[in-house]
Design goal:
mainly alpha; Ferritin; 9 helices; 66% helix
Length: 250
Amino acid sequence: MQEALFQYLLRLGDDSLILGQRLSEWCGHGPILEEDIALTNISLDLIGQATSLLKYAGEVEGKGRSEDQLAFLRYENEYVNALIVEQPNGHFGDTILRQFFFDAFRKPLLERLILSKDKQLSAIAEKSLKETRYHLKHSSEWVIRLGDGTEESHIKIQESVETLMRYTSELFYEDKVDAELQKIGVACSLQEVKIEWDKTVKDVFHEATLKFPENNWKFDGGRQGRHSEHMGYILADMQYMQRAYPNMEW
């Protein structure tokens, strides 16, 4: 059970860590000052969530690794985040849609994890949910604004849909880790989460006048440590200081 819980916490923590790293790249580059600050704050929320999850993962693993060591000193194939969070920021619409897809997944997941029989995971989920509700409100409102906005904004975010939808199925990937933890009431069914995700996305797309892609492409592998070509560049930036100056602390 400990190994399954460790892997589960890594998945949750790595999703937050890598998406937080991606969003931090917008700092100083936002389209308007308000969004520059908003995206940076969301990034900080995600890094905070990753800190809590990876710290607990280190405790569960029992090998003395801290949250910093888990965040910065693993090889690429040891990260188990979903592929969608490592995709490039692209233009503002790409970033917003990527965030919306993730937020629409993470909110119902956290709502269910509050009921986890693991008290520490439940507490992390409860704290994270308050932030994630705001994240979803922010991203969904922007999807609607861009989709139902100008002709150019509609075209661009519709192209984002065509590009990013293929990565969403992996968010609901389940294996023996999930099965073992669901059996003892620690984890929840991701198929139940998907039902709510489907409804949220459908409702927002309807209001945004966006169409679902006609193809049924699905890309995955992140949960097994198989990543896109973008992951190495993320880690090169993220891990530089710890690898250049081992064991450094601020």
